[in-house]
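[SOLVED] Need 3D model of a two-part complex

Original post:
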Amino acid sequence: MGQLLHHVFEASLEHHASRTAVWGRGRGLLYRELEERSNQLAHLLQTNGVEPGDRVGLYFPKAPESLIAMLGILKAGAAYVPIDPQAPLKRAAYIIQNCGMKGLITTSDRTGVLHAVPGNTLFCVVLDRSDGQSDSFVPWDALNAFSSERPEIFTNDTDLAYILYTSGSTGEPKGVMLTHRNARSFVDWCATTFKIRADDRLSNHAPLHFDLSVFDVYNTLGAGATLCMVDEGTALFPATLSAFMETQGITVWYSVPSALTALLLHGVLETRNLSSLRLVLFAGEVFPIKYLRRLAEVLPQVDLYNLYGPTETNVCTYYPVDRAALGRMDNLPIGRGCETMDVFAVTEDGRNASVGETGELWVRGPTVTPGYWGDPERTRRSVLVDNAHPERTYRTGDIVTPGADGNFAFHGRRDNQIKSRGFRIELGEIEATLVDHPHVREAVVLPIPDDEIGNRLVAVVVTDKPDLTAAQLQQHCALRLPKYMIPGTIGFQERLPKTSTGKVDRTQLMASRGEVTDGVV
Amino acid sequence: MEWSRGPVKANIRQFVMENLALGKVGGIIEDDASLIDNGVIDSLGIFQLVSFLEQSYGIRVRDEEIVLDNFKSINAIEEFLLAKLPRKGD
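Solution:
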């Protein structure tokens, strides 16, 4: 059976049953309540036909019920699939269909997604309904009728715990599968490294479909600590967010750097008392060093860590920020490999890069994904299985240089994946969506570097309809892509410059990007 | 210059619809509908909106004013804006 992800929670129950496990939307749940409710949900799922190995989706704004859902699904032996609650219907429907979901936990205003899933046989647990049970809709209150005893289910640690969908270069999102062992290895490493305690109050800033939240949720539950969920209305407003940090007495914070930058620039931090804060972790994108220096000044008592790792590995390198060295640094290193992981750079000719040499970062160890749901071809390309090693190896596609001090320096990507506000975006997915428009012949999307959010998106489009507008194309994208993937500027050109091999010349387009304004290039 | 309700609200609505509400609503946003819960305003949108208000009305929005209460709906934005603008009799 091995060590399962939800065992970290069950181990805490013994000593912390009466402590608050989670706060969110003005409501709290004790450890005991979370145990009872998640057991009830597991029984409800079983009764409705969910079997070990099935997938069950979470499709609602995050709330304390999110934790009941995650744990209940795991206790039923199934894997949970968090869907961005703001995802356009088509994208949510794609995810539901792609992973063959058996059940969905959602809100009544989102059940319409089922009409967009051809031939679906899903049943839905509807959070904001208390009655009106029908064949496929179960109200949340139906939980009350089920036993609050822990169900007996046999789950193996190589079974899937969750699937996280991330942008895919070919036009559809791809499902990164994570097993119990993958997640446990990460959470256990965190417990050793960051020493989270029962009196800690951890923020949960990241959305649940983003793997930063795995740290927040399971390190909290493993320590008997309290998770303080940041809802959408708080996350958007830096001054509200900093007030939340103060009133909640947050001790451990984890987010993308752009959220910290927004707090620094607009969060009126000088008026807040953040003396409880002891640990600030950030990951997901490059933190501009000038803002990190300011953050270090504003939070003199806090330990700062730069964590790095794609969804396929979760965190695989980490760098404790050396405050004394910040002043003379140009770029922040992504650090050295986590103690449980084997992290190395491979040169273009297939050698292990030595100090100062550039190569692609490869990651081997217990947190590496078994692959992408339903996509063995893509899995073969990036997840390597080598008989000489018991662990899988993931080729990250990130270009790095090992330093003399053991820390890796990050230089960028070998493909067209970029980050914007910490979100991982395949430019190819946006381009495929644009070209999907009946009047778009060609499209290229350019990442324009931006200090505050990482990158802004500019699209250059060739159309056969002279009166096609940028707004129409943005609307077309909005029905298919999350908001952070919609190009803020769309320009039109008669043709795209090509390289000698016939590919779109991104370098030339990037050079002329300064001239791109809406509708004109 | 003095301002009155009608044009201010229409202006805010137009900006929100054309710049922030992409694909989020079926062409209509009720005056009191939450702009947050349905994802009309996201973390980039909030600062676009603030810049729009500052540039269109010559006001300065302070960081401590960029909070949920002032931006949760078209009505809330209108109230916030009108309170910052010179009115008849001022």
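Edit: The radius of gyration of chain A is 23 Å.
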